[in-house]
Each structure stands twice: as C-alpha cells, then as structure tokens.
Predict the structure.
Amino acid sequence: MPPGHPLAELRQHLTRREFLGRSTTGLGLAALAGIIGRDARAAGGETIPTLGSHFAPRAKRVIYLFQNGAPTHVDLFDYKERLAREHGKPVPEEYIGGKRFSSMTGKADGKRLLGPVEPFRQHGASGAWVSALMPHTAQIADRLCFLKGMHTDAVNHAPAISLLLSGSQIPGRPTLGSWMGYGLGSMAENLPTFAVMTSVTRNTTCGQIFYDFYWGSGFLPSKHQGVKFRGSAEPVLYLTNPDGISRSARRDMLDDLAALNQHHLHSWGDPEIAARVAQYEMAFQMQASVPELTDLSREPESVLREYGPDVRTPGSFAYNCLMARRLVERGVRCVQLMHAGWDQHNSITTELYSQCRDTDQPSAALVLDLERRGLLDDTLVVWGGEFGRTPFIQGNLDDRARWGRDHHPYAFTIWMAGGGVRPGFTFGETDDLGMNVVRDPVHVHDLQATILHLLGIDHERLTYRFQGRDFRLTDVHGNVVKPILA
C-alpha cells in the first residue's frame, strides 16, 4: 500500500485499543469476555470489566441527578447565620471585588444581601444543615457526602453544564457517560451503557434547553453516545417495527446488513461502521427489553409511594428516578437525569418551592431504594447543578414575590451518596455569606477526576487520540478529592 494512501494513514493513527477493537481477534475477545461475564453473573460471581479499570473500583455505575439551572446553595444546604442576620444590607465590597457575574447582575456593588427564604436545621448524627425546603433529603443526611466548596469557570448555563459534563465549555467533547462506556465497556446485553432522561417542573417559567451535546459522545465512536429515554408511550424513538414486519424478518434483515457492514468495515476500517452495526443490534435487543423496563405493574405499592405522587407520570422527575433504579439494576452503567427549572432570577419565593417539591422526595427515595436492594455500595449517586446562585438579590427587595438570585460560579454545593464516598460527611466551606470558597475548594475537573477514580479509572490515563492530541475528560486539570473517599 503506497505512503499517503488514506487507509495507510488511518492504520498509522490506530491506538492499541482501537486496533484490538476493530480486528477479528478483538471482536472475538470481546465476545468471549461477554460470555465469561454472563456466566459469572449466572453463577453469582463478579463480572470482570472487559476493557479494564486501572485499579479496584469502588463503584460500578453512576446515577447523575443533574439539576439544570443551578440550585441556590444558600437556600438549600449552605446555611450562613450572617447572611440571615444581615438580610437587606449591601454586599461588602471585599466579597465581590474583581469578580465577574452574568450580564443580568451587572455590577454587584450596591446589591443587597438576601437571607435564606426558609429556615435551616441540622440533621442526623452528622449535623448536616438542610433547609426546610428539603425535608426528605434531610432524613437521609447521614447517608450523604456534601461538597460545599464546589466552584467553576463558567458564568452561563450551557457553557457551565458542558464544562461539568465534558470538561470543556465548548460543545463537542465526549461526556462523562460516554467516557465511562469507552473506558469500562457495557454490563448490559439488551440496554445501552449510557441512558439519559429529562424532566421539567410543570408550569415553570425558568426551564432550560436540553441540548443533545449534554450527553454526546464527541469524537469517541458514536456507539458511546447517551440514549435518550422519553416520557411518552414510545420511550425510545424508532424501536417499533413497521406494520407487516415481524421480529424474525427484522432479525434476518439485520443479519444481512451486518454482513454488508462487516465487509465495508474490512475494506475501510472506519470505526463508525462498527458503531452502526452495534447500534442496530442494540436497537433490536431494546425492542424486547424496553417494554419490560417501563412496566411498573410488579413494583410494590410501598415502593411507588416512596417516590411520591408523580411516580406514575412518565416524564416526571419521580418517574425518571424510579427508571434510573430499574436501569442500573439491569446493568446500565451511567444514567443521567436532567431536571430543568432551577434558573430562578425572579422566582425564589415561588418556583423554588415547586422545584424542591418535585425533586426532594424522589431523590431521597432513590438513595433508600438502592440501599435496600444492596446496590448503593457500588452505585454512585450525584445530585447538583452547574453552579450556585448569588447570596445577594436580583430584583427589588420590597417585592418579595419577585425575589431572585443570579448565576454564581464562585461557590456551590452538591451531594453524593454510595459508590465509595464517605457518608455523613461535609467537605469544603464557604465564607460567612456563602460567597466564596475559603476551605477545601473542589473544581469541576476535580469532581470529574474523583468520579472516575471511584470507578477504578485514573483520569490521566483514560485518553483518546483525536486530531493529533490525546484528550481526556479532565482536559489537563483535575485532582482526586481523597478526603471524601470512604
């Protein structure tokens, strides 16, 4: 083959992982590993990851309860007595000097402090501070690990969400679930490795757009992209056969397509051809698995009550939380729930209550349900948004019905549960107004590195070569937050 031939150049750039994955031997080994893993599961043994962890994992799977729009940390989890006491006073200049806020805030000097809208109490043996807005979360405080020193670089929603989920503010990089699928492989034969569901509080005025790049595979093979489950009678689009096409006819058609694609793959070596074959096969398997997944008839009534009154409403956050549990117990490695409506620039005293009512009970029920089923120890649950909200008011202090808070990248709170993190533990601290992190800061890249570490992955070693550069989820940053590890 002459130098400069496209196929020769493609082969020059193959990584060892890609070569094994594309070769007949690699496909055979993958199939053999799948059989071994299936037999081990049937015998009650542990499944060995097909692509491999770098060290013993603490978690096998992740459920990310992503709260689009940025929950207000100073109203939910980060209690500041001074902020409550000095409600209505101007923000001290030393807290905001030189900082960049969104254009909706403009200059923050002269802004007035806004105390928490509902009282806080300490809960459990850990003494965690939780607002009265979150009574169910308060009840499981001793199972949670709070990170109160979170901070980010982005000041607007889409760039901040993209940074947290993909490591870059610019869309186009692989997201967390895609990296997990690429690095660890699949644990399910008839469901995707990475599943996504979205929801929004009814009648909200502050919903966020769900961009597809929030669960995209970027430059990784497209088989690693998140599969979106919709809250409707057809949870996954295009799974049903057209009228007149039987399941056996579909099987024959896919077998013929696979043979043609395999011939094409052998000729050109394009990984997207292999991805196409894999996705066709996954869609065929999901024709049988998805109806069973969404059939709640065998769920005990007591479990359904735990998730709250909306659990039977497809597309609600409660329904999606229950689906998340059903997905991970069937082998899905990453489930990303995205709930919009937290962007409360002028609705802290109204829509914040709706958001908490819709998300508090199902989130706590999910943690308890996983624990009861023996899944919490190796399932990491993460709850949080892309940044926090300002301790000062956006709007008129005299118009309580229109109180709001602007975007705040300098400090926010998330919580984690299970999967190898310390329960009943709070890490990080903000100043006495909840404005800036003053102890144990955690950047979003540190969070990414820690999640991968809990999955047994060294974030500096999980890379993919693209356009001459080795890319990774954490870019060139990130440190594992070791104090939160159990």
